[in-house]
Write a structure and sequence with these properties.
single chain; 106 residues; 2 domains; 6 strands; elongated
């Protein structure tokens, strides 16, 4: 099975319970399945550390991203698009419901 794990807000360093839990789940899944991880990292984070922590994953992609502060123009900017892989695009709105819609671009 091929699994795409997308996590906004980063997975590394594993300094919170949620990150530890996610890393354990991904690590176990990647032993039996092809797992690709896509996440974000802040300016002080170590994206290479995440890849070292998940050696069985097919790919670990960490995109630099600084969370805009509330009231900043970037905070309320319309929609964000994350390219999840060849032929797949996921568009997420910044609205209260935070729903995402995925569609094939082929």
């Amino acid at each position: 099975m091929r699994i795409l794990w997308v996590k906004m807000g980063g997975l590394w360093p594993s300094n919170t319970g949620g990150r530890v839990r996610s890393l354990q789940i991904i690590s176990e899944l990647s032993r039996r399945h092809r797992v690709t991880v896509v996440t974000t990292h802040g300016s002080g984070d170590d994206p290479d550390g995440l890849a070292r922590r998940l050696p069985h994953c097919d790919r670990v992609v960490s995109i630099p991203y600084v969370v805009p502060k509330r009231g900043d123009r970037k905070f309320s900017a319309g929609r964000r698009t994350i390219v999840a892989g060849p032929g797949i695009r996921s568009t997420c709105g910044n609205g209260e419901s935070n729903r995402c819609a995925s569609r094939s671009t082929r």
